[in-house]
Amino acid sequence: MKIVLNRQESWQGEPTRAIEPAAKLLVALAASFQPRGCLVAMANGGPGMGGYHWPSQPPPCLPPVQEDPGHLSPAQLQDLLGRPLSLILPFKRSVEMMRWILLCVLAASIECALKDFMNVCMDAKHHKSEPGYEDKLHGQCTPWKNNSCCTANTSAEAHESVSYLYGFDWNHCGAMSKACKKHFIQDTCFYECSPNLGPWIQEVDSSWRKQRILDVPLCQEDCENWWQDCKDDLTCKENWHKGWNWTSGQNRCPLGAQCQKFTVFFPRPSDLCEKIWSNSYKSSSLRRGSGRCMQLWFEGRENPNVGVARYYADLRSRAAASPLPAATLLLLLAPLLLSCWV
Question: Half-sphere exposure of 250 toward its Cβ, with a 13 Å CA cutoff?
Answer without folding.
Answer: 11
